[in-house]
Amino acid sequence: MNLIVAVDNNWAIGNKGNLLVSIPNDHKHFREETTGKVVVLGRKTLATFPQGLPLKNRTNIILSTDLNYQVKDAIVVHSVEELLEELKNYNDEDVYIIGGDSIYKQMLPYCNVAHITKIDHEYEADAYFPNLDETGEWEITADSDEQTYFDIAYQFLKYERKC
């Protein structure tokens, strides 16, 4: 299972329900990685999407503890156990965890690949992703050249869980 996230130097991922920064090439990378695949996200993350609608050309699975929560054109599950059962219907390599922070933290133990956009900046934030460089369980297996968007430097990193 994969996860995909953009983080700053402190592994921050959001502030007040929003992304830290919008980098068009990062959005393009996200689309290329996840189109035609399965994306797993929380209710609050879905609410930040345009019109609060599921992503097009993907199977959207929403994890919400609200038993009455329903979303048109998406699958809603209510626990990690129910989610894992639903994910048995898909190829592991086609599943992407896309946020927010509580979903990442709950699902990280089940992921073996992490697609990280590392932004060389420190933002004001209230949501964080676990620092994969500190755990000893992950190693960088691919990286892009450093890129810039205006004055923001960033790069795409691929982490894989050590066997």
Structure description:
- By secondary structure, this protein is α/β, with parallel strands linked by helices.
- It has one domain: Dihydrofolate Reductase, subunit A (3-Layer(aba) Sandwich), CATH 3.40.430.10.
- Helix content is 21%, strand content 36%.
- It contains 5 helices and 12 strands.
- It has helices spanning 24-34, 43-47, 80-87, 101-107, 132-135; strands at residues 2-7, 12-15, 18-19, 38-42, 59-63, 75-77, 95-99, 113-119, 127-128, 138-143, 147-149, 152-161.
- The strands form 2 sheets. Strands 1, 4, 5, 6, 7, 8, 10, 11 and 12 form a 9-stranded mixed sheet that branches. The protein has a 3-stranded antiparallel sheet with strand order 3-2-9, with no helix packed on it.
- β11 (147-149) and β12 (152-161) form a beta hairpin.
- The longest helix is centred in the first third of the chain and has 11 residues, at 24-34.
Summary of the model, kept short:
Helices cover 21% and strands 36% of the residues.
Helix content: 10-25%
Residue-averaged pLDDT: 97
- Could you say how many structural domains there are in total? 1
The fold-level CATH name is Dihydrofolate Reductase, subunit A
One letter per element, helices H and strands E, the order comes to EEEHEHEEHEHEEHEEE
End-to-end gap: 14 Å
Largest sheet: 9 strands, mixed
CATH class: Alpha Beta
CATH H-tier superfamily? Dihydrofolate Reductase, subunit A
The CATH architecture can be named as 3-Layer(aba) Sandwich
Radius of gyration: 15 Å
Strand content: 35-45%
Tally of contiguous helical segments: 5
List how many beta strands DSSP finds: 12
CA-based shape: globular
Low-confidence stretches: none
Helix-strand makeup class: alpha/beta
